[in-house]
Structures are given as C-alpha cells and as structure tokens.
Write a structure and sequence with these properties.
mainly alpha; Vanadium-containing Chloroperoxidase, domain 1; about 55% helix; disordered N terminus
C-alpha cells in the first residue's frame, strides 16, 4: 500500500528554506504535510557550527572497488523484498509527515508520541532530527553520488519524487542520519530500552536501502554524521535541558498509559523480515 504524501529527506531543505508554511507546494504536493515535522522547529546547533561531514567522511566507494561490489550485493538482496511487509514498512519510514516521523519509535518506547500528549518529547525529536539530517549536506554536495535507483534504472517507494532525487546526492543518507540521530537521543531519554531503540534506528536506515534510495555505505556514513552531530549537540544547554524534560515527560505518560496508535504487532512482523547481509 502506497503512503500518500510521502516525502524524502532530499526535499526537506526546500521546506526549511520557506519556513515550513502549511500551504507551501512541493514535488507531489507532499511538502505541505511534511513541513511541520521538521521545518517548524529550529535545530539545537547554531549556524556555522555543524559538523563538517565533507571532512569527517571518506569518499564513497569507487566504481569497481570491493566496497562498491558489496553495495551492489546488498542492493540485489533488497530488490527481493519488494512487495513484502518489510517493503511497506520502508514506505512508511520514508515519510517525513509528522505522524510518521514522530511515531517511528512509538512501538519501541511503548507510548504514542505526538505534539498534544508528549509535547516535550516531540519537540526534542523535531529539533534533533533536523540537525542530524541537515548535517549530511556538505558531504552530499561534495560527492554527489549517484543513487541506486538511477544507476539501475529502477523505481523507488515514491516514484513521484524520483525526478528530484535524481539530482540529489546519495552519500550520505540524510534520512538515515535523522533516524539514527533520533535513536541516539531516545536512548538517552529511555536508557533501559537503549538496545531496542538502536535496533529500530538500524532498521529505519535499512529502509532507505529497501526503498532503493540509498546504498548500504550511504547508510553507514549517515550513522557517523548523526553521531558527530549528537556529540556536538551535547554542548548546547537547551538540548541537555530538553532531554531531561523529555525523560520526565516519558515517565508521566507511562504512568497515564498512552499506548501507541501504530499496529505494533504488524510492525514487529515486518521488521522480522531481514535484509540479508546488511550492516
């Protein structure tokens, strides 16, 4: 089942540039729905102080290299998952709509994450995910790596966005970076669930491979970008305060009993379908 209004991270900078207005039109008219998720909240890291991923990350694999052969092998394995429950889960992970980004970890935490019931946690996620995703920009611009769906002349989870993505660098994955960044932050908010949260962060990144947007090494580099961003974020007092506030809010919501609205059994079944060979 296709998810209407899907939007990939490659389109988010355009949303941020226009301030996330609810009526803004973008490719496939997806931006209007997605804008409030990331563009309505500023990041934590001041302008000009983001990690320089163009320096931090090595070049992507060269054509004909063993690393590129590995990327191709994982791509071939991912293609076989099309049409499965895991593919449909990857479709949802590709969405930057608020109801998808904020609830990506709801089943893992055991609560519903939304601005009304968990405003502090939602705000923390919005701000930290924005920084993590945007951190990949310098490396993307420097390397401008061709995406797998372009290299193989194939489709993705969102065919209506492919025209934009064809000219957007594949390495590293901004979407995987924001997902890994969210996992790192939530592991601090709920350290007793750290392993489960990081496993969900991994599957979130693997969804980028399954959707044919990214190579495996794009996702691996995204984890480095996100980790560098989260490390820098800890120097910001507002971030430290918001993590503590989100931790207190989580305890309150758990006491109230606010179960996830997602179908967690279906999500668990989908995530039980593994991408062979993925790292």
């Amino acid at each position: 089942m296709r998810i209407p209004g899907i939007i990939t991270w490659a389109l988010a900078p355009a949303l941020l540039a226009v301030g996330g207005c609810a009526g803004t039109k973008t490719t496939a008219d997806a931006g209007a729905a997605a804008a409030p998720s990331l563009a309505s909240a500023p990041g934590y890291i001041p302008a000009g102080q983001m990690p320089d991923t163009a320096r931090l990350l090595p070049p992507p694999p060269a054509a004909g290299s063993a690393a590129q052969a590995f990327d191709e092998a994982i791509h071939d394995a991912a293609v076989k998952l099309r049409g499965t429950a895991r593919w449909h889960m990857a479709e949802r992970d590709a969405s930057l709509r608020p109801e998808d980004t904020l609830t990506a970890y709801s089943c893992t935490l055991g609560i519903d994450i939304n601005p009304a019931d968990t405003p502090k946690l939602a705000r923390l996620l919005q701000r930290s995910m924005r920084d993590a995703g945007m951190s990949t920009g310098p490396a993307k611009s420097l390397y401008n790596r061709t995406r797998p769906f372009v290299a193989h002349n194939e489709s993705t989870c969102a065919p209506e966005e492919e025209a934009v993505l064809r000219t957007n660098g594949s390495y590293p994955s901004g979407h995987a970076a924001l997902g890994w960044g969210a996992a790192l932050v939530l592991a601090e908010v709920a350290p007793e669930l750290a392993d489960e949260i990081m496993l969900r962060g991994r599957s979130y990144g693997e969804s980028r491979i399954i959707c044919n947007y990214h190579w495996q090494t794009d996702v691996m580099a995204a984890r480095t970008a996100a980790a560098a961003t989260m490390a820098r974020m800890h120097a910001e007092p507002a971030f430290v305060r918001d993590v503590a506030a989100a931790r207190r809010e989580l305890a309150t919501v758990r006491a109230r009993g606010l179960p996830p609205k997602r179908d967690c059994a279906a999500q668990a079944q989908a995530l039980s379908i593994k991408l062979p060979g993925a790292l």
